[in-house]
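Q: I'm building a small set of examples for a reading group on sequence design. Run inverse folding on the following structure and report the sequence directly after it, with nothing in between.
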């Protein structure tokens, strides 16, 4: 991030607060075959704290995405991270009967968190009475972006039932989708069509909740024949208030959001990660109705920069 980007996006960002992180809190999950393991991170001070429920990418866990979770928590959000069944820490066999519906178990994990906020709040020392349950956002990276998208109104053609059910949740008021899959059908590679059936028929027409879509213009996934443009579909194909942050030179890890020392990060770039931290923080404060100054400043920083690391467009 350039000096001008940093100065503008730092408007209204106070010094980071001390945070507390508790893991694993295990929620009972009938029908899942095992409990849902959750991590909660929160600032040690402040009240009326908004909430982010974050869904990890395929194979990751509640231990991942520290660069985002730590930043959000240190700047006023309570961040809740589940470990989904596809996590490498779970070790689900490929022939497990739950595999074809991994996408659906993920959505149910997120809803279970929303249903059990009382228990999760009580699990963190000093957090009781400090949550603002009227301001909840869903966020996710890669597969987790699709998971969060379902709560925002995205519909997925279930490979088992052949239905595209509405799984949106009115408790979710805003979203952030990072490097998230686009259209299915002929846009998929043979590998994606054969191995990831939940990508075959996504429908963005009902995804009306305000959302920031983040995409890298060098994100060449082996999932679509369209290249990086595919990752912008959640913005272009969905109605309502949306914004798109396109990151120049970013690949699928967007500079390293998945962790501080993650081997699959091929485009490590701390400045890009810092930009994402601030942009997503500012957007969520805007979309959740907390304040608009930071979001306005963030957009101006990129448009005014002589060497911007990305661009923001909105509709």
């Amino acid at each position: 991030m350039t000096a001008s980007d940093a100065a503008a996006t730092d408007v209204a960002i106070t010094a980071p607060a001390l945070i507390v992180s508790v893991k694993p809190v295990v929620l009972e999950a009938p029908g899942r075959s095992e409990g849902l393991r959750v991590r909660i991170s929160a600032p040690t001070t402040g009240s009326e704290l908004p909430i982010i429920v974050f869904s990890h990418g395929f194979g990751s866990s509640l231990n991942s995405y520290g660069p985002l979770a730590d930043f959000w928590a240190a700047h006023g959000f309570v961040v809740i991270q589940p470990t989904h069944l596809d996590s490498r820490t779970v070790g689900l066999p490929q022939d497990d009967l739950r595999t074809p519906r991994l996408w659906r178990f993920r959505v149910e994990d997120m809803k279970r968190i929303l249903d059990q906020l009382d228990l999760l709040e009580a699990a963190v020392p000093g957090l009781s009475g400090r949550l603002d349950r009227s301001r909840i956002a869903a966020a996710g990276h890669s597969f987790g972006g699709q998971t969060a998208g379902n709560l925002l109104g995205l519909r997925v053609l279930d490979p088992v039932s052949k239905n595209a059910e509405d799984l949106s949740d009115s408790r979710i008021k805003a979203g952030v989708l990072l490097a998230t899959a686009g259209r299915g059908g002929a846009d998929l590679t043979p590998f994606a069509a054969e191995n990831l059936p939940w990508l075959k028929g996504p429908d963005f027409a009902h995804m009306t909740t305000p959302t920031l879509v983040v995409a890298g213009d060098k994100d060449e996934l082996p999932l679509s024949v369209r290249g990086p443009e595919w990752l912008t579909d959640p913005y272009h194909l969905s109605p309502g208030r949306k914004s798109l942050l396109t990151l120049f030179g970013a690949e699928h890890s967007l500079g390293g959001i998945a962790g501080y020392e993650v081997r699959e990060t091929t485009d490590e770039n701390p400045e890009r990660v810092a930009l994402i931290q601030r942009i997503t923080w500012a957007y969520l404060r805007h979309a959740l109705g907390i304040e608009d100054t930071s979001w306005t400043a963030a957009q101006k920083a990129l448009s005014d920069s002589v060497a911007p690391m990305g661009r923001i467009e909105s509709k």
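Confidence is low (pLDDT under 50) at residues 1-10.
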